[in-house]
Each structure stands twice: as C-alpha cells, then as structure tokens.
Design brief:
Elements (H helix, E strand, L loop, with lengths): L1 H34 L17 H8 L4 H31 L7 H8 L1 H4 L2 H12 L6 H8 L11 H29 L3 H9 L4 H29 L3 H8 L12 H10 L4 H28 L1
Membrane topology: Multi-pass membrane protein
Family: Belongs to the binding-protein-dependent transport system permease family.
Subcellular location: Cell membrane
C-alpha cells in the first residue's frame, strides 16, 4: 500500500519536476557550461572549453567592467532598500493614523504604480518626466528660471533618476506589506504604553518595529533579490538600442546582457551570470540563517 502511494505521488510530481528542470535547472547548467568555453560570434560552432579564463577575466582583469558593475549593483540594492523601507514605513504609519479620513481612497491611489505594467511605466517616465525637451521635470525647471537638465546623460544623475522610478514602482508593495503588518499589532499595547508614559518614538521603537519585523523581514529579503537582479529600469532608461543617453551605468545583469547580445561574447556573459547566481545563493543562505536565528 505504501509503495503504491509513493508511486502515485511521484506520478503527480513528475510534470512539475520536469517543468522545473526544463525552465530552471537546465538553463543554469547550460549557462555554467557556456561560462567555461570561448563561445562567441566568432566561435559559434567551433568553440572549445577554456576552463576558468572567463571568470578570471571578469574578476581579475585590471579594466574589468564586472567589478564596477558589481559595486554599482550593491550600491543600487542597498540604497533602494533603505529608501523603500524608510519611505514605505512613514507612509504606512501615516495611513494608520486613527483620525485620518479617506484611508481607502489613499490606499487605492497608492496602488496605481503597481497596477501599471513596468514597461509602460518606464517609457512614460523616460519620455514624460526625464526628456530634456518636453519632460515635466525640465518644464518645471524652466518655469523656475533654471536651465534644462539631461537627467539620463550623467551617471550620477541617471542613477538617481533610475532610483526615483524604482521607488515609484516598488513603493506600493512595501506600503501594502507594512500597512498589513501595522494592523496586526494589538492596539492595547499602545494604550498600555501611553499609560506607562511612553512617547511616540518609544512606541515606535519598542512596539511597532518589533511587531512588524517578522512580517517585513521576508518581504524585504524578497524585494532585495528582485532589486539586485533588476534589469528593465536601467536598460530601458539608459541603454536601449536607438536610445543611448550617454550614461554608462552598468549593473551585473546589464553587463551580462551587453556581453551576450551586443558584444556576442557568450562565454564571458555566462561567467558573469554564474557569478551573479553564486552571489544570490550566498546572500539567500545568509539571510535564511539570520531569519531562523531571529
């Protein structure tokens, strides 16, 4: 009977496992294989295994773009997460003010950026907000007597512009998560703290933050993964073919894309992708261990 049950269970699992292998496992294994070859546009059919040369080129070459791209990726992820958590917490806290009216209206409006497809949002911001000739931001600067700014031509300004767009797109999820976590806290704790003489910041520190941490931590980790391997915003704002802006921003994922589909150096692109995969796995193990300890 038990053997029959196990056989039946494997029959049910087989289609899902097959899909996982085809969609996830096989591409990872094949990318790993390509990363140790010299496959490129010039060695499409006669490529050969060259060992770890591509990894050495990415990590140890003096003018390697990979290391600067990795630094940009880490900075991009860290700043975005800090700002998203901070702004999301403040807005969610404001939405949970007892005497605030029209809460549902505000919450609905805040979900709009999340409802719009990412590709559409990015193009709207690129043309409608950041365009040097007829973008909203430059129109406002002109009205105030300032000169026009090309928001996507300078690396620092382009980086900040990409962060602003990412904040607009990602904030609804963070607000919704923190808002739900805040509503799960027992209001009696705040009343008891008030009777004990606790002030606003005391309640935030000893009740609110510990109360929302178990819910926020997994959401923050998931958002960190998404932000770390984010491609669409930086690529569509600064690197899309036919719309090169002058900024030379590169994260690890855009650098891998550039090597694969612009330079056609598939071996190096595979090595960069595998290094990114290893970084994400290590970060995942560390965060899971940290969450389990908490």
């Amino acid at each position: 009977m038990r053997h029959r049950f196990k056989t039946k269970a494997w029959l049910y699992l087989t289609p899902a496992l097959l899909i996982i292998f085809i969609v996830i496992v096989f591409p990872i294994l094949y990318t790993g294989y390509i990363s140790v070859t010299n496959m490129s546009l010039y060695h499409w059919s006669d490529y050969k295994v060259i060992g770890l040369d591509n990894y050495a080129r990415a990590l140890f070459k003096f003018d390697s773009v990979f290391l600067s791209a990795l630094l940009t990726t880490v900075l991009w992820t860290a700043l975005n997460m800090v700002i998203q958590l901070g702004v999301g917490f403040l807005i969610a806290l404001g939405l949970n003010t007892p005497k605030l009216r029209l809460k549902r209206v505000y919450k609905t409006l805040l979900m709009v950026p999340w409802a719009v497809p990412a590709y559409i949002s990015i193009l709207l911001w690129r043309v409608g907000m950041f365009n040097i000739e007829f973008g909203v931001l430059n129109k406002l600067l002109t009205l105030m007597g300032f000169g026009k700014v090309d928001f996507l031509s300078n690396n620092v300004i382009a980086f900040c512009s990409c962060m602003a767009l990412n904040l607009w797109m990602a904030l609804p999820f963070m607000i919704a998560t923190i808002d739900g976590a805040l509503q799960s806290i027992d209001r009696g704790l705040y009343e008891s703290a008030t009777l004990d003489g606790a002030g606003f910041w005391g309640k935030i520190r000893y009740i609110t933050i510990p109360g929302i941490k178990p819910i926020i931590a997994p959401a923050a980790v998931m958002t960190t993964f998404i932000t770390f391997k984010q491609f669409d915003i930086i690529y569509l704002l600064t690197q899309q073919r036919g719309y090169m802006t002058g900024a030379t921003l590169n994260t690890v994922i855009t650098y891998a894309h550039q090597n694969a589909f612009v330079s056609n150096n598939y071996g190096l692109s595979g090595a960069v992708s595998m290094l990114l995969f290893i970084v994400i796995i290590l970060f995942s193990l560390l965060t899971n261990r940290s969450l389990q300890e908490d």
